[in-house]
Design goal:
With 76 residues, this protein is mainly α. Helix content is 46%, strand content 8%.
Length: 76
């Protein structure tokens, strides 16, 4: 299972010295509220938004994912 790593998104934003409001405007939001909901995990980022963030922060888009591999049990 693949999950979005919200901590990495937040860390990248802070490392660039950007506020949530600044990133919200760069993504085309009229207010900070929708971006805040996404960064806090209340609403998911779209694939397009993740690609835009990757370009903004100059990182590969894979940087924002957690690769969670489920372990299978062999009951034989």
């Amino acid at each position: 299972m693949v999950k979005v790593n919200l901590c990495k998104i937040r860390e990248c934003r802070k490392a660039k010295g950007l506020s949530q409001g600044e990133v919200a405007k760069l993504l085309g939001f009229n207010t900070v509220y929708p971006y805040h909901r996404k960064e806090s995990g209340q609403q998911p980022f779209t694939a397009e938004e993740l690609m835009e963030l990757a370009q903004l922060y100059n990182v590969p888009y894979e940087h924002f994912f957690i690769w969670d591999y489920a372990k299978k049990r062999d009951n034989m």
